[in-house]
Prior knowledge:
Elements: E1 10-17, E2 23-27, E3 38-41, E4 51-54, E5 60-67, E6 72-83, E7 90-92, E8 94-97, E9 100-105, E10 109-119
Antiparallel strand pairs: 1-3, 1-5, 2-4, 5-9, 6-7, 6-10, 8-9
Amino acid sequence: SVFEEAAGWQFTASVTSGSGTDYVWVSPDDAAPAGSSVSGNTGTDGTLLFQWEPVSPTSSSITVSETQQTNYVFDSVVCLEKSLTTPTPSPLAVTVTGETFTAEVGANTVVTCQVKNKFQPQGTLDGHIYEDTNGN
Length: 136
């Protein structure tokens, strides 16, 4: 299968940090109140940035949901994390439930996730099955 970056895919994220709402959203909606979910669409390069700033450096939990598009099904997600003290990206464990994934993000950590979807057309294909009974 060939996977390509695509614009227009919607994702929604919610964060728990510190005592729950000890953070401010930076992107994609810096006006969103702490504790609220934010949504955005991937750009022409297939990326979307979710960024928040905890009141004090602490780990956070982020849950991201994808709005599935017609004729596509969720395939997989792989996340990598890095920080100033560990600049080489390393795998980050995620918990996947349907089209939603959750990850624990350390303080001052950058995480990148790649979500893949498979094209799966809906509908029926009409045709005939021919059985060659005489070996021709």
